[in-house]
Amino acid sequence: MKMEQSWKDQLFEAINYTGLSLVAAVMFLPFIYIVLISFATEQEVLAKSFMLVPTAFSLTGYKYIFSTPVLLHSLGVTIGITVIGTLVNLLLTVLMAYPLARKDLYGHRIVMLLIVFTMVFNAGIVPTFLIVKGLHLTNSYWSLILPTAISAFNLIIIRNFFMSLPDGLEESAKMDGCNDVGVLFRIVLPLSMPAIATFGLFYAVGHWNTFLSAILYMNDSSKWPIQVLLRQIVILSEKGLADMSEAPPPPSKIINMAVIVVSTLPILSVYPFLQKHFAKGVLVGSVKG
Amino acid sequence: MHFVEDKLSVSRAELVSGRTRIRLRIYKDRWLYLMLLPGLLYFLIFKYVPMWGLLLAFKDYQPFLGFFGSKWVGLKHFQRLFHDPVFWMLLKNTLILAGYNILFFFPAPIALALLLNEARNEKFKRFVQTVIYVPHFVSWVVVVGIAYTFFTVDGGLVNEAIAAFGGQKINFLVSADWFRTMITSEVIWKETGWGTIIFLAALAGVDPQLYEAARMDGAGRLRQLWHVTLPAIRSTIVILFILRLGTFLDTGFEQIFLMLNAMNREVGEVFDTYVYTAGITQGQFSFSTTVGLFKSLVGFLLIIGSNRLAKKFGEEGVY
Asked: Which residues form the ABC transmembrane type-1 domain (chain A) (predicted)?
């Protein structure tokens, strides 16, 4: 009886590990494949239709895409709105979350209600579009930053995080002559760095991946962030990178893969540094909330 | 008489002192209110002012007349909405995609979390977790781009493999038959790993003694999974399922917009994409606002309803 059990358990174990490895492979190998093909040589891509792993290494794709000013510019736009946008996000979210975490603040209930209401009911894209247009923000980089300046969801989780900090902090800081702004920036924020870093990453990913705002508000193609250019090149197969360079363009397969890599790698390279914080960061708020 | 007046004046005095007390509290917390101000302005300008814009659904919006100058037309756009075959197509497509989502995507993170929880090797487990979170951080443009490079007819890995094994190439990307399968698979690929976080947290809270007891009773790994682990996360599953119902109509704009083309529009156009195409690109502001308002109202009712349901199941609900 006991023997049979452990035999069954061993089988279970084997199936489980195989299954998990398969899932992980399906989710991760596409990235590896794309990176590999982006370094393939022209000759090989043209000669073979079916290729899992290229046998020779070349930088043709990358040389080509960086020789056109379009991609660099677009990458610059994305880096700019990611950095500035994330700073704006964090500043506004923290400034709002902290007062709301103070349960003795007169009127905090009504403000919370107003915030939660925007999570369940929203005006939709046409009225929002008309407001952004009315404020003359179209074709301005601010249209990619201001309309998403605060995420109600992140705000609530950060507020819950602040509420979980010990109560005595404020009072003792105030005894030492700090006002509320001082308490937030000198006492509360330094204690909240893991949470701030986590939400900074979430906001940054949002900006890096911004697509909808850009197609809504940016008519001027010279101001496109990288995601819009990426769609132009990979999905619509348009000549997004107008032939600026003298060399003839390599096969579109190599170009596509190289553009995907360039538009993904920067944001993914931040991830390992924050990975250990974020699962905890997410749960702190959501489980308690 | 005198007595009554006395009482009145006392309560008035109390009222006044109550008011000054509030004023004092507000003065004491003036820095906090100052900090609150930018955020309040944000919600006012970008969330509440647009709600006024919803009145466009009851007007014939003319850009040169502006919001206030445009004529009121009552329920004209709503009548058009329910008589328009486009509306019924949108409703059908949205409901089918939402149904696919609940049926195939919803259980995926639960299954994966259960498997992960059974992995005893901590290093392996952590490695798999790290890897499966990655797709969540990639944009929809990249996901759809990857799908294009894998599934395209000319030179896509999947079709080349089909051809290499002697099969017929399938035009996955511009076929109405494959559209829903592609959409749902992409969602599963991108979000399943991330979705495990909440279930793994719930699983971490299971009392190890329960497993001990089950093992004493002679339960193997599978039986422990069935009788101990699954019941332990049942309440999390129930609440997430109910909340999911609340956002039933949200099929997500970007993914569907990116996957749409002339060949699959018939099955792929949903409320979100139609509002964009009709409203922003074709300038039918009023009618597409009506479509959007319909969707927001139904969504609102679904959220209220599902939250009630969650509370009925003894859960806290979202608000």
From this structure: 75-272
DSSP state of B225: I
Question: Does the distance separating the beta carbons of B39 and A93 come in below 8 Å?
Answer: yes
How confident is the prediction for chain B on average, in pLDDT?
88
Other beta carbons within 10 Å of B80: 14
pTM listed for this prediction? 0.89
3-state SS string for chain A: CHHHHHHHHHHHHHHHHHHHHHHHHHHHHHHHHHHHHHCCCHHHHHHCCCCCCCCCCCCHHHHHHHHCHHHHHHHHHHHHHHHHHHHHHHHHHHHHHHHHHCCCCCCHHHHHHHHHHHHHCCCCHHHHHHHHHHCCCCCCHHHHCHHHCCCHHHHHHHHHHHHCCCCHHHHHHHHCCCCHHHHHHHHHHHHCHHHHHHHHHHHHHHHHCCCHHHHHHCCCHHHCCHHHHHHHHHHCCCCCCCCCCCCCCCCHHHHHHHHHHHHHHHHHCCHHHHHHHHHHHHHHHHHHC
Which of B50, B134, B201 shows the shortest C-beta gap to A268?
Answer: B134
Q: How far is B71 from chain A (nearest CA, A)?
A: 17
Q: How far apart are CA B145 and CA A257, in angstroms?
A: 9
DSSP for residue B138: S
Compute the distance between CA of residue A36 and CA of residue A124 in angstroms, rounded to an integer.
Answer: 41
**ipTM of the complex, rounded to two decimals:** 0.90
